[in-house]
Amino acid sequence: MNILSFTKWTAKLTGDFAMPGYVEIIIRTIIAFSILWVFVHLLGKQTIAQRTYHLYIASITMGTIGGNLAFNIKIKFLYFIISIFLMGSIVFVLNMLSVRSNRLRRWIAGEPATLIKEGKILEESMKRMGYSLDSLKQALRAKDIFNLEEVECAILEINGSLSVLKKPSYRSVTKQDLNLKSSPESVPVELIYDGKMLQNNFLNHTYDREWLEGELKKRNLTIKDISYAVVGTKGNLYIDLFHDQ
After folding, report:
1. Using one digit for the tens of pLDDT, what is the confidence trace for 184-234?
2. Exposed e or buried b for every residue in 136-166, given b needs 16+ CB within 10 A?
3. Which residue has the higher pLDDT, 230 or 96?
4. Other residues' Cβ atoms within 10 Å of the Cβ of residue 101
5. Can you tell me the distance from the alpha carbon of 14 to that of 8, in angstroms, rounded to the nearest whole number?
6. Which runs of E-coded beta strand occur in the chain?
7. Which residues does residue 193 pair with via DSSP β-bridges, in sequence order?
């Protein structure tokens, strides 16, 4: 596409030339999706989780702008591009400021609020956060806690989730509590996926192709028979076949 044709194409989108409405909507939808895709990739996965105030606002605003860009042909295409670029720039700057300054981060992203401390509900903190007792009990039930007496500390995180620390008498017993030794475990290593060997996973681990072929030979299997194969945390080989017997 040369410069002249690109200019004409842009002019059509901005309303200088007429084009069929359905064609313009198709083009706008594709562009809106592409811009939002780039926006999410540039700002990272926190945008999806909406972990802070400004990212939550940005997600809603960018989604609204992108939706209008797709079907609202009464507004010029250029205006949407300016809005998206401006919003993306604002969020990017706020992200940089929140990383570099603790004081600004509290103002931009907010900060966690303690709702229960030393087993006691902090009513003032609850009122300040607009968190009712019913909301607190519901969030605790979601963590399998039906008795407030079990809670030592509860913190309302920036993203709205509730982090809970139980009192020592209500916590699950661990091996360390029983003075039991734990056997070392490693990260699972996927070796076969959809009948194909994952070559890259052999490069960074002790498992090699010969070892895998030997294990498959013991089981009278070939790679093409296997849907999924992974070495577990304790070194055991798990195999799932395409046709389970």
Report:
1. 667 888 899 988 888 888 776 677 888 888 989 999 998 888 999 998 888
2. beebbeeeebeeeebbbbbbbebbeebebee
3. 230
4. 12
5. 10
6. 113-117, 120-121, 151-156, 162-166, 189-193, 196-197, 226-231, 237-241
7. 196, 228
